[in-house]
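Backbone-to-sequence.
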């Protein structure tokens, strides 16, 4: 991947945090924002090598960034993480709440730990990161927050009561926080991917069945979701967009 020529970079000097930036959609987003000149903070939980590879790719293309470990479902870790970013760069311009997991089971088989682990990361993690970062953006009177939701939060999906509830929660959270932060120049939007080819979906057993519901007839690529996130994070045309949900789902 090559960085854009400096004169075309729209995020030169901006600081962007991507939670779960080591793999999948987060990785593609980190690279896309890095190629636009942003200093990218690649958060990860366990995959330090993968996170460092993302940073190496950004640096090789002439960009800048750092990998930072934190479990974003834990308040103390989030607060420490944000503190470290501030120590290095003293501002945060973009937050992409992307980290997420699945623990799929039909309702009657779903254990409380399956429920809690998904809600804790996919919903509470979004709250914790947004709260910590918005304090800084409020002082700056600017910022862009993009939450990665899912079509599952809009339509429901058998086996994903925990995941669908979390993602529907992210959509309600996005719309509310957008209204709370709008008068300080901060926009808050959500992107709702359909089925995207990442580690999260690689072991799905019913992919032929799923394909019947995707008019474009294929899984999406992580970079296709990253493209929408990049638009919301970097494009002037997104200045007047807040509280919205953008589907990237092949027509699902
Ligand atoms: P993925 O390939 O499984 O990557 C998940 C990322 O989240 C990894 O970088 C992982 O870090 C990170 N992560 C996991 N637990 C974490 C924690 N406790 N704290 C911080 N980071 C953590 O997933 P993906 O498919 O790219 O999904 C990204 C987002 O898109 C998720 O919110 C997901 O729900 C959503 N989404 C995905 C699809 C799809 O079809 N793939 C569809 C709709 C929505 P490590 O590498 O360290 O584990």
């Amino acid at each position: 991947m090559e960085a854009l020529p400096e004169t075309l970079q729209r995020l030169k000097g901006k600081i962007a945090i991507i939670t779960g930036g080591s793999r999948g959609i987060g990785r593609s987003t980190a690279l896309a924002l890095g190629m636009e000149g942003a200093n990218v903070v690649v958060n990860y939980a366990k995959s330090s090598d993968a996170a460092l590879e993302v940073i190496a790719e950004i640096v090789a293309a002439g960009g800048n960034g750092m990998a930072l470990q934190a479990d974003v479902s834990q308040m103390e870790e989030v607060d420490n993480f944000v503190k470290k970013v501030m120590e290095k760069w003293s501002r945060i311009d973009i937050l992409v709440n992307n980290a997420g997991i699945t623990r799929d089971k039909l309702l009657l088989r779903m254990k409380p730990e399956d429920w809690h682990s998904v809600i804790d990361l996919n919903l509470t993690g979004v709250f914790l990161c947004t709260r910590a970062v918005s304090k800084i953006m409020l002082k700056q009177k600017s910022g862009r927050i993009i939450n990665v939701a899912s079509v599952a939060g809009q339509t429901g999906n058998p086996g994903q009561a925990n995941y669908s509830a979390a993602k529907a929660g992210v959509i309600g959270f996005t719309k509310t926080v957008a209204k709370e932060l709008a008068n300080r120049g901060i926009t808050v939007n959500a992107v709702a991917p359909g089925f995207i080819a990442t580690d999260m979906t690689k072991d799905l057993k019913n992919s032929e069945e799923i394909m019947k519901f995707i008019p474009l007839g294929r899984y999406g690529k992580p970079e296709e979701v990253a493209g929408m996130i990049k638009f919301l994070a970097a494009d002037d045309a997104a200045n007047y967009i807040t509280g919205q949900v953008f589907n990237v789902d092949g027509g699902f």
